[in-house]
Amino acid sequence: MIETLEQIDQSWLLWLNAQHAPFFDDVMFFVSGKWEWIPLYALILALIIRKYRWNALWIIAAIVLVITLSDQLANALKSGVKRFRPCKDPDIGHLVHLVNNYCRSSYGFVSGHAANSFALATFVTLLFRNRWAAAGLFVWSTLVSYSRIYLGVHYPGDVICGALLGTLIAWLVYLLMVRLRPGIAEKH
User: Fold this and answer.
1) Are 95 and 132 in contact (CB under 8 A)?
2) Residue 32: CA atoms inside 13 Å, Cβ hemisphere, count?
3) What is the DSSP letter of 171?
4) In the predicted structure, residue 164 carries a pLDDT above the cut 80
5) CB atoms within 10 A of CB 104
6) In whole angstroms, what separates CA 155 from the centre of its chain?
7) pTM of the predicted model as reported, rounded to 2 decimal places
8) What tens digit of pLDDT does each residue of 134-163 get?
9) How confident is the model over 88-133, as pLDDT tens digits?
10) What is the biggest distance separating any 2 CA atoms in the chain, rounded to whole angstroms?
11) Is residue 2 pLDDT above 60, yes or no?
12) Residue 10, Cβ neighbours under 10 Å: how many?
């Protein structure tokens, strides 16, 4: 069963990763960056402060907890599972299209980018309950996650599991925050 899933994951990766063009190489490399999204984070922060005033400190602390947990659990899983990234996989690494020779660490299960972006998207969606903001955030987190496959540094399964991990962590931390600070939920 595991071997079949790995074969499907490799097939999906090779097909998705092969759909590349020089323009999209640059776009996906940009999308996958950390610092490129500071304006989005600043906008989210400003909206939280504007809507929640003094409760914003609790919310910001919860977001820091969400991102820290998703990032550290993703890294712990990478160290524990030790599944090669596609670009480091001895079986298919030579078939993977790399952008800017970007392939750092050896292990990739689960995707930290997917975990972190879906964690933030889920938490902010639960917080604001605005379908347009939710759609935008989930399009953004899906794009960030897909960029990892496009760049050849994660299998689709790494990304899917990372997204599920981030979503679960955000949901649990949100429930904990609402339990500790019930007034926050009343702002909807």
Assistant:
1) no
2) 23
3) H
4) yes
5) 9
6) 13
7) 0.93
8) 999 999 999 999 999 999 999 999 999 999
9) 999 898 899 888 777 888 899 999 999 999 999 999 999 999 999 9
10) 54
11) yes
12) 18
DSSP of the chain: -HHHHHHHHHHHHHHHHH---HHHHHHHHHHT-SGGGHHHHHHHHHHHHHHHGGGHHHHHHHHHHHHHHHHHHHHHHHHHH-PBPGGG-TTTGGGS--STT---SSB-SS-HHHHHHHHHHHHHHHHH--HHHHHHHHHHHHHHHHHHHHTTSS-HHHHHHHHHHHHHHHHHHHHHHHHH-HHHHTT-
State mean pLDDT over 45-71.
94
* Alpha carbons within 13 A on the beta-carbon side of 58: 18
Confidence of residue 187 (pLDDT cuts 50, 70, 90): low
Rounded CA separation 144/138 (Å): 10
**Residue pair 23/97 in contact by the 8 Å Cβ criterion:** no
Q: Pull the structure tokens for residue 184.
A: 């926050």
DSSP character for 84? B
Q: Residue ranges per domain, the chain?
A: 2-185
Architecture in CATH for domain 2-185: Up-down Bundle (1.20)
The predicted pLDDT at position 186 comes to 60
